[in-house]
Amino acid sequence: MRPRNDPRDESAERRIGPHGNVLVLTENTDLVADQLSGDSALGTAELLRAPLMNNISTDEIIPGWCCYRYDEKLGDYAYLGLRDKKVAEGALKSLAPRIIVSGEAKGCGSSREHAVYAEKYAGVEVVFARSFERIYEQNCRNVGIVTCTDFDVLESLLDGEELPLAAFTRRANNIERAIVDLGGLFGFNRQRSVLTPEFAPARPLNVVEKILQRALSPRNPLPANASVSVGESYFVTTDVRFSHEYVTPMAAGMFTRQFGPHARLEQPDTCYFFQDHLSLAAPVLRRRENGDRLIARVEDLGVRQREFAELGGAHFIGPREGGGSRAICHNHILEHVARPGDVIIGTDSHTCTGGAVGALAFGVGATDIANAWYNRETLVKVPAVVRVELDGTLRPGVCAKDVMLGLLVHPGIEGSRTLGKVLLFTGSGVGSIGMDERATLCNMAVEAGGMTALFEADDVTHAHLARRTPATPAGAVPSSDPGARYDSTVTVDLGSVQPMVALPGDPRNAVPLASVREDVRVDKVYGGSCTGGKAADMDMYADVFRLARDQGRSVPAEVRAYIQVGSEAVLNHAVERGYLDLFEQVGVTVLPPSCGACINAGPGVSERPDEITVSAQNRNFPGRSGPGRVYLASPYVVAASAIAGRLSSVEDMLAGGART
Q1: In 394-534, alpha helices (H)
Q2: Are 361 and 393 within one domain?
Q3: A GO molecular function for this record (predicted)?
Q4: Contact (Cβ atoms closer than 8 angstroms) between residue 365 and residue 133
């Protein structure tokens, strides 16, 4: 990237010194608690020799219920959800660590910018980790928190050296470095920094590069005989922007402060606002000591969101008459909005669901969406692309959820191999995978650390677009050029995929179901969320429950089983096929559309640490869905476990439920 009339004064480059407290997040949470209480017998250097905590989710940095606020109170809640529950309210803010250190994949999970603000309001200025999840790192950069993966820099700091900002950001590109240097994205824009990104010579492009190149903002036009460069950042023009009630009020406040009280949404017809995350939260919140205050905050979030959406003239997809929501945001975008080649951003990490129709869809934080509301632009670092070749067909009783759980532990994907990359599903087997199942694969790409995932448009895509009312014309459909470059290729024989389950704590704890030898008795079963609440998921639940009914079986009295539809369209699908009656006959409670239990905000959440849930949702981080332990599985396994009363395959359920 070439500086062109860069307004920054190089002589005044920001420097970072060794003063302030350091918090080392070790795998041993007792050591973390000792540091927070001031009782640590170990110095920072000794703590850094202990195993560092990996995969710290944003649910752990800031629990979902804390996100009903978006002010400096967030600093009191920082790390309140950390595993083992050793961090008390206000503990981090009391220590006020200037520097926090952890291991791999810091900030996995939700896109909530509340997490980085919680750290910022607790005094954090610099975050070191072995690696960072994309959205978390971008959120840090957007609010001026420095991130660094170079532990030699940390060692120099601890040795007493004062270092220039460039030492911390040397692995960033120039525009990322400038955003941090200028205090965040809004500071960068106010400074009207004119950094011209570098371009590569013209070359064959894969579909991701082609979409981004076509969407380049006039702010960084494509030169003649050039192409976008992997690892370089460009501003691109979005086609669709959406937000839900968790984030809209926070981002709306930023929008008004940055652009003025009379600022309006740019092209509001391409903006969508959803009330889907908290539409069934009240019964869960009432069980909390401060439940009435939390419910009032939830209601206030909804009011503020509706007012902002209506003032801007955007689409508002709100509450459903009779309870719940009209649709979960990802289901609605998939069903009605996304088109091949679109650039779609949403304030939710599972925005990548839209990749099922061939859109480049990815999650962003509050700062990014507020900026995009004003000018439709978002900053994108061109990602490397991993080809996932799907060959053959799936066996009966095996589905996309099993494929994805298997991919999370595949040697070509596990660990941090796909951080910030895009999974491109291709191969001879993609034609056998329907739209809803493609959505499951794309939805969970973020659990692999990916930026997003997508399928190139084909007959399945065009049939899906034709079923919409009115039918959606595909327009110019991008596809990869022969000779395009890919980071790597992973091959999956669909015929060899077996039922999988993710053990509690992380989706990446995936193992074959048959390898779980213990008898896991369940208290609750949940089939829903954007991952498990689609029409095809309802078909799978129904297949199992029909077998159970024919055997005279039903959900045991000691088990609570819930099936939650993802949209009104899915509800209609279930009604037309008699599924609601079937589910009721076997003892399952059907819930209206809402994110619900997946976000700890609806029926199906656990209430005690010893409760066990088998769920079709996408995440099982500590505290994500209540204090209990959550196993992730396919709709088939979820339904079978409901009938068996224990973690079970369909075959085991039919054999009597006991697993041996």
Answers
A1: 400-408, 435-443, 459-467, 529-532
A2: no
A3: iron-sulfur cluster binding
A4: no
